[in-house]
Amino acid sequence: MREIALTDPEGVLLEPEGASTGVLVLSGSSGRIETDRCRMLASHGVAAASIRYFGGPGQPDEARLIPLETFDEVLADLHSRYQRLVVLGTSWGAQAALLLGTLHPEIDAVVAISPTYVSWAGLSQERPQRSSWTLRGEQVPFVPFDDEAIEDAVEESHGELPSFCEAYLSALEKYADRVPAATVPVERIAGDVVLVAGGDDALWPSVLSAEAVRRRRTAHDLETIVVTHPDAGHRVVLPGEPVLPLSPRLAWGGSEAADRELGLRAWPEIAALL
C-alpha cells in the first residue's frame, strides 16, 4: 500500500494495489485529516483520501465561509485515477458530502454519517452570522444558529457537557423562513446515497435529518438507504476503526457499544457502495 502526502490542500491518500474505487473522507468540525478511517478503508482495497478543508494554509481559520471549490482538485484527481468515486463525510463533513454530491455528477455515491439536511451558519463567535460554505464566491444559503437557545443549553447543563440538539431544533423553527433555501437539494445527487444516524445523537437531530433527506429523494423516485440505531450517538465507529476521544466541550450522546453497533449495521451498506 502506498501512502501519499497531499500538500495543496494538506492531506493524505492511501492507495492499495489494484484499487478501482477512490473515496474522499471528510471529517466533522474537528477539521482533522481522517488518516485512521482512510487506513481502515484502504485495508478493504479502496483508495482513500482525506484533506484539511479549514484551518490550513490559505484556508479559513474556522468552519465558516469554506469554498466548496476546496474539494474540486482532489475529487478530479480521484476521478481520474479510479473507476468509481465516493464521498464519505461525518457531521460537518456530511454537509459537505451532500452538497458536493449535488454539484459533481461524477460522484457515484455519497455516505453521510450523522448528517444534516440543511446548510448551517459557520462555527464562529463572530456576528453577524455567515454561511459555512461559499460557492463561486457567494454564500450558500444557511440556517442561522439560535444564540439564545445555545446559551440556554449551556446554562441548563449545570456544569455537565451541554447538548445542543434542542438548540438546532429551535433554530429550524425560529428561522423557518430560511429553511427552504438552505435545504440541500439532494434530489440532484445522481449517485447512491447512504445515511447513518444515531437515535441518541445529543449534538444535533441527525435521524430527523436523515429522514428528511430520504423523503425529499423519495418524492423524486430516488432510493436512499438510512441506517439507524436508537441508542447510538453522534459518533459512529465503523468496524476496524479505533475509538477516538470525544470532544470535552459538548455532549455527543450514545455509548461506545451502541456507536460501534451502528457502525457494524452500516458497514454492509457502505461496503456495497465501495
Description:
With 274 residues, the chain is α/β, with parallel strands linked by helices. It has eight helices and eleven strands. Strand 1 (2-7) and strand 2 (10-15) form a beta hairpin. The longest helix has 18 residues, at 256-273. The mean pLDDT is 96.
- Can you list the strand order of the major beta sheet? 1-2-4-3-6-7-10-11
Please report the distance between the alpha carbons of the first and last residues. Answer: 17 Å
Counted beta strands: 11
Averaged pLDDT, please?
A: 96
CATH-level-4 superfamily name: Alpha/Beta hydrolase fold, catalytic domain
The share of residues in helices is 25-40%
Quote the CATH topology: Rossmann fold
Low-confidence stretches: none
Report on the biggest sheet.
8 strands, mixed
User: Radius of gyration, Cα only, in angstroms?
Assistant: 18 Å
Q: Structural class, judged by helices and strands?
A: alpha/beta
What is the helix/strand order? EEEHEEHEHEEEHHHEHEH
Specify the CATH architecture.
3-Layer(aba) Sandwich
Assign the CATH class: Alpha Beta
Secondary structure tally, helices: 8
Amount of beta strand:
15-25%
How many structural units, i.e. domains? 1
Bulk shape: globular
Question: From the structure provided, what is the oligomeric state, counting identical versus distinct chains?
Answer: single chain
